[in-house]
Design goal:
228 residues, six-stranded parallel β-sheet, single chain, alpha/beta
């Protein structure tokens, strides 16, 4: 007898009191019609922009990532050799630029990465620890690749991953849905955009967020005041 999925993987992790938002690889490469990485839709970009606006209004720290490789992709190793379209992200070309809808603010961190996970070989974990974050709200692309890899590494580093369903995207609905299913089952939580924006904004954030942002000695992300 095989036990039901919900019986085995039915537990949930709480949305914490000290969230940070990450926007993963929302680069032109994924939204340029005709490009090898083109998603075919801007829906996840538009959703991520709304989540970003809510985070800025609430004073939640914001981190962006993009992909860039050195000459010949040597710093991308076997991953660069395996995924052919990554050759378009060598250097600082136009396809590696972040989309204007989610352009980083002057006080927002941009992490350059070479592999799927936003944690691998980067300063993301130490940055989140410096912010005393306990929760990582995840948006970006692609669901089955960099989003899933980052969610897995987030929970392994001790941060609750909250993946925003409408704010992540993939080129094929099958790996997209499978990725979300897998994340929800084993690694984190998949929340709808409306629930996340309400939590960040309309629902307010705990006083711990305000105290952290105002008294940590680190810059406050975005233009809006922290929620009470």
């Amino acid at each position: 007898m095989i036990r039901g999925h919900d019986e085995v993987f039915g537990r949930s992790l709480p949305f914490g009191e000290r969230p940070a938002l990450i926007l993963i690889d929302l680069m032109r490469a994924y939204f340029e019609p005709g490009g090898e990485l083109f998603l075919g839709s801007r829906d996840c970009l538009e959703s991520a922009a709304r989540v970003l606006a809510a985070a800025r209004t609430a004073g939640v720290p914001v981190i962006h990532t993009r992909v860039a490789f050195g000459p010949g992709g040597v710093d991308g190793g076997l991953f660069f050799r395996k995924v052919a379209p990554l050759r378009h992200l060598v250097g600082d070309g136009p396809l590696g630029r972040l989309m204007p809808e989610v352009a980083p603010g002057p006080e927002e961190v941009v992490i350059v990465k070479q592999y799927a996970s936003a944690f691998f070989g980067t300063t993301l974990a130490s940055t989140l620890n410096a912010l005393r974050a306990d929760t990582l709200v995840i948006t970006g692309v692609s669901t089955s690749g960099c989003v899933r890899a980052s969610a897995v590494d987030a929970v392994q580093h001790g941060f609750v991953p909250i993946v925003v369903r409408q704010a992540v995207g993939d080129r094929d609905p099958r790996p997209h849905e499978a990725g979300l299913f897998d994340i929800q089952a084993k690694y984190g939580e998949v929340w709808d955009e409306a629930a996340v924006t309400e939590r960040l904004g309309g629902g307010g954030l705990p006083q711990a967020v305000t105290e952290r942002l105002g008294g940590s000695g680190l810059p406050r992300a975005g233009n809006g005041p922290p929620a009470a």
